[in-house]
Amino acid sequence: MLEIRNLVKRRGAQEILSGISFKARPGRVTGFLGPNGAGKSSTLRILLGLDRATSGTALINGKPFAQLHHPLATVGAALDGSGAHRSRTGRAHLRWMACAAGLPRSRVEEVLEIVGLTKAAGQRVGKYSLGMGKRLGMAAALLGDPEILILDEPVNGLDPEGIRWIRTFLRERAESGNTVLLSSHLIGELAETVDDVVIMKHGKIVASGTLEEVTGYHSSLEEAYFALTADKAGGVG
Ligand SMILES: Nc1ncnc2c1ncn2[C@@H]1O[C@H](COP(=O)(O)OP(=O)(O)OP(=O)(O)O)[C@@H](O)[C@H]1O
Q1: Phi and psi dihedrals of 55, rounded to 5?
Q2: Where is the ABC transporter domain (predicted)?
């Protein structure tokens, strides 16, 4: 379970998060949507202990990230890029991570297989395509077989086969009782994958509920999204 309660983040005079609250529940895939600059990545970074909130709490199974006893087995995250050094191979990167976390090398081969990167595991990360980099980031997130997955834009850059794979994979994770939170700008694709939806705009939650509740009387989630996030002047955020 992920729980965000009254989260506020200020940077100088700018309020990036204005007291947001939502939950991502076990057994469900929760989609996190919003225009560029809405505050999605800032929320995820605070949740993962990569940034501090001005006030409010972001809890993972009832605890802040820093207090988790087994962080890798509790939560796996794939944010921007894979974080791997370009001159390392994908396998070496994962082995280094596994070693740091006290996980066996055999787990590296398992996650490479899960994300479909076994054949490319010996190539340098600098030679990877965008989609391969995404798969490597996903492999790293899965190393500890976590009960919670947090993914920022996981399908961006994946080919159609990769998009189908990730959709099926995330549904299976949720159906076996895990929690999945993912942000995406591909709303049509997201609507195929999620149970619950949270939509942000200008640092506030503008909608939150099941896919059906958020879609409401609109013909699709995409229509609901545009109605909820429309700016009279248009443009960013
Ligand atoms: N390190 C930073 N320093 C200053 N401002 C920042 C920083 N990180 C984010 N911001 C600002 O915080 C606001 C929210 O940005 P954030 O990246 O969380 O949005 P987002 O919803 O993830 O957007 P996108 O869809 O473009 O990824 C923006 O106004 C952004 O300019």
Answers
A1: -155, 170
A2: 2-227
Measured in angstroms, how far is the CA atom of residue 109 from the centroid of ligand 1?
Answer: 35
Burial class (CB in 10 A: 0-12, 13-18, 19+), 10: middle
Q: What is the residue-wise DSSP string for 29-68? A: EEEEE--TTSSHHHHHHHHTTSS--SEEEEEETTB-GGG-
CATH architecture under which domain 1-61+148-237 falls = 3-Layer(aba) Sandwich (3.40)
Contact 144, 108 (CB under 8 A): no
Q: Which atom of ligand 1 is nearest to the CA of 41?
A: 22
CA of 39 relative to ligand 1 center, distance in Å: 6
Residue nearest to atom 12 of ligand 1 (CA): 16
Per domain, the residue ranges of the chain are: 1-61+148-237, 84-146
pLDDT of residue 234: 47
Contacts of 186 (CB under 8 A, 6+ apart): 155, 156
Q: What is the separation of C-alpha 91 from the centre of its chain, rounded to a whole number of angstroms?
A: 22
Q: What is the pLDDT of residue 157?
A: 81
Residue 123 gets which letter from DSSP?
Answer: S
Residue nearest to atom 27 of ligand 1 (CA): 36
ipTM: 0.90
